[in-house]
């Protein structure tokens, strides 16, 4: 199967999830955020996406990280063709707006693509990952263009049945080091 075929299948499965299942998973993911598998000091920067639709997680996940004293940055999609993501600071008080593709992003000015260099950990949205660390995203290549410039530990967040044995891989794909799922929590990937 091609990446697009796998994507279509995984998206259809997510869209068929009940609100109950999505919300239950989001509550679990927020709990797991209190058990990060690596030491992260107060005040350190963590990158995390703002989940939309049936993506795993909710703002409760980000709130749990803020609650522990971490500084959060979230992605901002720059205008035009795909290029490295920009980032914006996120706190409980950050005014948000809905933008392109229904993404929810801070209204505030972006910090530019360089802000990711400050992050110790980055939570990466994905449709699926493999035990070896391969990641399938939404298909615009934003994270694959952004992650090479970062030293952050890369943690993909997916639903439990989206940790697969095999996925199509391309040369630009940046491997994930950990996966977080609602039921099993954090697991190291052997990529
Ligand atoms: N919540 C969240 N934020 C995120 C991501 C994400 O996956 N989830 N991203 C992860 O990279 C980046 C945004 N990437 C995206 C890439 C494609 C589409 C999208 O909907 N594409 C259309 C096709 C668009 C077109 O070609 O005209 C589609 O899939 O139908 C949306 C976001 C940054 N922010
Ligand atoms: N670093 C890069 N430089 C140039 N093109 C890239 C880079 N990374 C990915 N691409 C291209 O972007 C397109 C989408 O890549 P891919 O299918 O891997 O996206 P994805 O990882 O699923 O999406 P996303 O990161 O947005 O969630 C492909 O055509 C790919 O070749």
Automatic annotation (TrEMBL):
Transmembrane segments: none annotated. It comes from the Bacteria. It comes from Gordonia defluvii. Keywords: ATP-binding, Magnesium, Metal-binding, Nucleotide-binding. It is an enzyme of class 6 (ligase). Its EC number is 6.3.3.2. Pfam families: 5-FTHF_cyc-lig. It catalyses: (6S)-5-formyl-5,6,7,8-tetrahydrofolate + ATP = (6R)-5,10-methenyltetrahydrofolate + ADP + phosphate. Belongs to the 5-formyltetrahydrofolate cyclo-ligase family. This is 5-formyltetrahydrofolate cyclo-ligase. The keyword ATP-binding applies. Its cofactor is Mg(2+).
